[in-house]
Amino acid sequence: MLDIPVDHNNAAVPPYEQLRQGIMARVRSGELTAGTKIPTVRGLAAQLGLAPNTVARAYRELEQDGVLETRGRLGSFIASTGDPTRDAAGRAATEYVAVIRRLGLDDEAAIDYLRLALRE
Fold first, then answer.
1. What is the pLDDT, as a whole number, of residue 65?
2. pLDDT per residue over 14-67, tens digit each?
């Protein structure tokens, strides 16, 4: 059972993003380790009272981020990675994007701020 609170009334952060961030937080904390099987899209959607498409979107984004691996009919699992530096950089980038989104800035502004920081 994957118990991740999702606030359906939080207009600032959509449910799929809350779910994505919740899974990411559990991976970072070590609560979800490499190889851990996570619930099916439909199972988690029913458990959390979400639409299956909402959970599917969170899973897709986590897969694109390298956090999840989907193994066909076997299901989805927390990905095993061998490069802790790359993992830390990915987490930092994900957190940066979340902050930029909360601030309401667009991608171009985010990249401009990143370039400024790299020059320092």
1. 86
2. 999 999 999 998 988 888 888 999 999 999 999 999 999 999 999 999 998 889
Cβ(25)–Cβ(19) under 8 Å?
no
Give one DSSP letter per residue of 73-97, joined into a string.
GG-EEEPP-S-HHHHHHHHHHHHHH
Q: 3-state class of 65 per DSSP?
A: coil
Average pLDDT over residues 103-115: 94
Three-class SS of residue 56?
helix
Domains along the chain? 1-81 (1.10.10.10), 82-120 (no CATH)
> How far apart (Å, rounded) are the C-alpha atoms in residues 79 and 97?
21
Is residue 4 within 8 A of residue 48, CB to CB? The reply is yes
